[in-house]
Design a protein that fits this description.
The chain is of the alpha+beta class and 432 residues long. The chain has four domains: 83 residues, no CATH class; 90 residues, Beta-Lactamase, CATH 3.30.450; 73 residues, Helix Hairpins; 154 residues, Heat Shock Protein 90 (2-Layer Sandwich). It is built from 13 helices and 13 strands. The strands form three sheets. A five-stranded antiparallel sheet has the order 2-1-5-4-3, sandwiched between helices. A hairpin with a 3-residue loop joins strand 11 and strand 12. The longest helix has 37 residues. The radius of gyration is 44 Å and the shape is elongated. It starts with a helix and ends with a strand.
Length: 432
């Protein structure tokens, strides 16, 4: 503004000089013309400044007279503000990317418990859709009475365990509600389905081991107390021998359980190795002899074994898996039943070991649980046949270590087929 005032003063002095020299009218006309020129120039400069304000990202216009000193610091401040905004946006983007990468779900709510934002994990946990659920009450989205009671509390000292059924799959979520900011709320969800399953498995395992060992220990204790309280010569020799035989059987049963548990522990803790080339046909022949001995001539055995097929693996582990399937078939097939054992290559070049029986069969709901430790379809029959309830669990661990699959097909009253399918990468064909 100082330059405009200076220009007016200069034109006034110049007009006075002209008025003194050429007359007052000419001096006044020159002064008015100068003021008009200053007005036109100022208008043009203001017009350029006005156009610049429409797009402040561009540099200010040059040579706008007194506005240069005003626009320059404004533009520098604008650049600093834009840089700070860009830095803040990058920081916010980083925070959002980190929130999306969290293994836990995160949900933000406003003071009315309406959904504001959630990450992808939360969408998977609860089934949220941010595009359609935003600004909707969380109580209308998560319609669980337990959650409603939990969220309406005045404060939340601990998390809530929520069991949801999504697409036919049970999911256990640990959900924590926390206030933050000014009247806002954060929900953190954690999927603990696997942890809960492991905890249930651990409890079942302890209970099952205790139950499996309690029966033989009770028998042993009963006989020992009986023998201890009775005089040495009061029991007939035949009855004493029968008692001793029963105690021996129970002791061997406990020994089998402990041995199988140690085998499972070894399989779980030892690293997987490629092993050597194993002639599986020889293992099958040995297992068949053992199965025939257990059968005592009560079953018919049909075999179809290709001796050329070998497997890269651990011989002791494969021997255990092979014999477990044959032993189970003998135990659960009634007298005069047929057991068919096959060892062959399928159309995909995979080695398949199958044991088919005409036994009692297995209900469809029991098949997925057969490889669980101590799981028994018929507890009374399983114990009477001498099983420990760990054979299929051991077999499952062995085939996983050999990159193989266990397939089970069964119908109640018709029979079952247990198949081990080894990948082509482990198959080794030998000359006959």
């Amino acid at each position: 503004m100082f330059s405009i005032f200076t220009s007016i003063v200069i034109w006034a002095l110049l007009g006075s000089l002209i008025a003194w020299w050429l007359g007052p009218l000419i001096g006044l006309a020159l002064f008015c013309g100068g003021l008009l020129l200053l007005l036109v120039i100022s208008t043009l400069q203001l017009s350029r400044v006005e156009r610049w304000t429409r797009n402040l990202n561009d540099p200010p216009p040059p040579a706008v007279g007194p506005w240069d000193a005003i626009l320059a610091p404004i533009y520098r401040q604008l650049r600093r503000d834009r840089q700070e905004i860009q830095d803040l946006n990058r920081y916010v983007d980083g925070i959002m990317m980190a929130a999306e990468a969290l293994p836990d779900g995160a949900i933000t709510l406003n003071g009315d418990m309406e959904l504001q934002w959630c990450n992808q994990t939360a969408c998977e946990h609860i089934g949220l859709n941010l595009a359609t659920d935003r600004h909707h009450s969380i109580f209308n989205i998560l319609r669980e009475p337990e959650f409603s009671r939990y969220a309406r509390q005045p404060q939340w000292d601990g998390p809530l365990m929520l069991h949801l059924n999504k697409d036919g799959r049970e999911r256990s979520l640990l959900l924590q509600l926390t206030p933050y900011g000014l009247g806002q709320f954060l929900i953190v969800t954690r999927d603990v389905t696997q942890v809960e399953m492991l905890e249930t498995t651990r409890k079942d395992f302890v209970a099952n081991v205790s139950h499996e060992l309690r029966t033989p220990l009770t028998v042993l204790l009963g006989f020992l107390e009986t023998l201890q309280d009775m005089p040495a010569d009061s029991l007939p020799l035949e009855q004493r021998q029968r008692y001793e035989q029963m105690m021996l059987e129970q002791t061997r049963h406990m020994q089998s359980i402990v041995s199988d548990l140690l085998t499972l522990s070894t399989l779980e803790s030892s690293p997987t190795v490629e092993g050597d080339v194993v002639q599986v046909s020889q293992l099958i022949e040995s297992a068949l002899k053992q199965g025939e001995a257990i059968s005592g001539g009560q079953h018919s055995f049909v075999t179809d074994i290709d001796p050329r097929i070998a497997i890269q693996g651990m011989e002791t582990e494969l021997s255990s898996a092979v014999s477990n399937l044959i032993t189970n078939a003998v135990r659960y097939t009634p007298k005069d039943g047929t057991i068919t054992v096959r060892w062959y290559l399928n159309d995909n070049g995979e080695a398949c070991y199958s044991v088919q029986d005409t036994g009692i069969g297995i209900a469809a709901q029991d098949i997925p649980r057969l490889t669980e430790r101590f799981y028994r379809v018929d507890k009374g029959r399983s114990r009477s046949t001498g099983g420990t309830g760990l054979g299929l669990a051991i077999t499952k661990h062995i085939i996983v270590r050999h990159n193989a699959d266990l397939q089970i097909q069964s119908r109640l009253g018709v029979g079952s087929v247990f198949m081990l399918r080894f990948p082509k990468s482990r198959v080794r064909l030998q000359d006959s």
